[in-house]
Amino acid sequence: MLVHLRLDNELEPEDQTEFEDLVTAAGGVPSALITGSRKAPDSRFFAGSGKVDEIAVAIKETSADLVVFNHNLSPSQERNLEAQLCCRVVDRTGLILDIFAQRARTYEGKLQVELAQLDHLSSRLVRGWTHLERQKGGIGMRGPGETQLESDRRMVRARIDSLKKRLSKVRQQRHQGRQARARAEIPTVSLVGYTNAGKSTLFNQLAKADVFVADQLFATLDPTLRRVNMGEQGNVIFADTVGFISHLPHRLVEAFRATLEETSEATLLLHVVDAAAQDVDTNIDRVNTVLAEIGVDETPTLMIYNKIDRLEMATARIDRDALGRPIAAWVSAATGEGVEDLLKAILERLPTQVVSGSISLHPSLASLRAAFYNHGTVKTEHTDEQGCSVLNFSIGQLEYERIIKRFGPVADMLLPAGGVNAESH
């Protein structure tokens, strides 16, 4: 049984269609949708007593065994509703937590979900035990003892502390990984956006990966990183992240901070938007709100308008500002249309210094010649009169320095056949 109420004091009402999609994504089968409006939530039931009676009648008619509210309920409201309706009641946060619990696959993801669940549960423990009020007996040990409720709370707190320590270790490991990438000067491109905007499909196109893709909310929960060779730029890390949603519960933001830090440390953000959605601008604002919450609203961003295959008269293109810098790309991740142009636009937005020129290599330096080819930087090659290979190349400054360092004195003795120039982009 789905319950969606419109409140007069809400600045941004909850989306009814999104609510139904969330229930479906959780594996629920909606039997009915109860709607209504109020000036403000009722302190006891959130909904008015008359609306609660309407819900109770609908439960009997449809034999529903679960009531889901598209709102965040207080622990007392949840308990009062369950007692009145004789049915289990779940609020919006509990619904999202259930979806996350189903989708978590990695060790880190499971820890994050469990932490958020326990944090949510800790305020909902009720005094349901009375027979264990005195757990200790015997001479000199009689007393009020510890109630079962207190014992449960203590166990939950201990588990929460344990999870936080583990996640702190995971966060430290991720930080070390980011530091290693920073030392190697490998840029990170992070895909962000509203849930079900097509981030994972686009990620598979860009990184030639096989991340799970489904037309449902929160199909991706665990972050995925892939290293991609971008030719002149060298290696780039692409990161696929969990999708955002309106009114993302604060405890989820806190629990998934280790994951969201991949976004906060990114060199460039790809803000993926479902261009075929009805409320495109609203979804963009919601994502920008979450990005501001985690402190990455100042990170360079390239807008990606995805799913143009679902739009009439839409073609793949790159939008540029007055300075000619790419600011938006129109693509179809499903068909691959516009992806090649997007890759070029990404390269333009990444800060890099390119070394270009030509170099003459003796046949004995075949391994050095192979190093240039392995980076995909050789434009042309010809053999001179002395039988040496003359390579015309264009390569990132960092990759060029690595090649020179790798081959040491041999490379230092080489004289460029046509000179070497460095250009900043």
And the CATH topology of the largest domain? Rossmann fold
Query: CATH superfamily name of the largest domain?
Result: P-loop containing nucleotide triphosphate hydrolases
How many strand segments?
Answer: 15
CATH architecture of the largest domain: 3-Layer(aba) Sandwich
Q: Give, in order, the helices and strands.
A: EHEHEHEHHHEHEEHHEHEEEHEHEEHE
State the shape. Answer: elongated
Number of helices: 13
- Average pLDDT confidence is 77
Please state the structural category. Answer: alpha/beta
* Low-confidence blocks of residues: 127-135, 415-420
Distance between the termini: 56 Å
Question: What CATH first level of the largest domain would be assigned?
Answer: Alpha Beta
Binned, the helix content reads 40-55%
Number of domains: 4
Q: Mind summarizing the main beta sheet?
A: 7 strands, mixed
Q: Reading side by side through the largest sheet, how are the strands ordered?
A: 6-7-5-8-9-11-10
Radius of gyration: 28 Å
Measured by DSSP, the beta-strand proportion falls in 15-25%
